[in-house]
Amino acid sequence: MRVLPGSSGLRLALGLLALVLVAPVWAEDPAAEYEAIKRASLEGIESVDVLVLAAQADSGCHHVADAQIETEVEARLQRAGISLDAEPDAYLFVSLGSVEPLTDLLCGFVVSVELHQGVRLVRDLRIATVGITWHRVGFGVTTTAQTPDQLRRVLASLVDQFIADYLEQNPTQ
User: Fold this and answer.
1) Top-confidence residue, 134 or 22
2) Tens digit of each residue's pLDDT (9 = 90 or more) over 80-108
3) 65-68 CB contacts, 8 Å cutoff, 24+ apart
4) Of 31, 117, 151, 173, whose Cβ has the fewest other Cβ atoms within 10 Å?
5) In the chain, what are the domains?
6) What are phi and psi of 140, to 5 degrees?
């Protein structure tokens, strides 16, 4: 992925604009209202597929293979009763990133879990695209040897948050 200068500021501004547009002005807590909208977007999803992208630096940090992460996430979803399908309603996109070792002993990492599904633009309902309707991010710093375990711990927490929100919206699953 190519990162453009200033793109994070633009993303923040667009995110805040979206929050203002979707959360009613009269809402007591617009952030909570926005979180409720994200959770509500999970209602009716019957199946998901898991996609994993591990963008790891070629460094001294120990890593976990994409296939292992995908298997672990899928098993967690299946234990929770969430159906997996090759032609799903939505995709659970897992992104893992680690950086060059901060020192000879420490590595930094970031884990992201996003639900991507088909959406229509409010301004023109004829335009359909794929959008991120639910997401969580975690990060940490750990010893190089403990990086895989800490990545898994953070990922498990984020996937569990998805499962809880999904089951709240789909109690019969």
Assistant:
1) 134
2) 999 999 899 999 999 988 766 777 788 88
3) none
4) 31
5) 1-40 (no CATH), 46-169 (3.40.50)
6) -170, 175
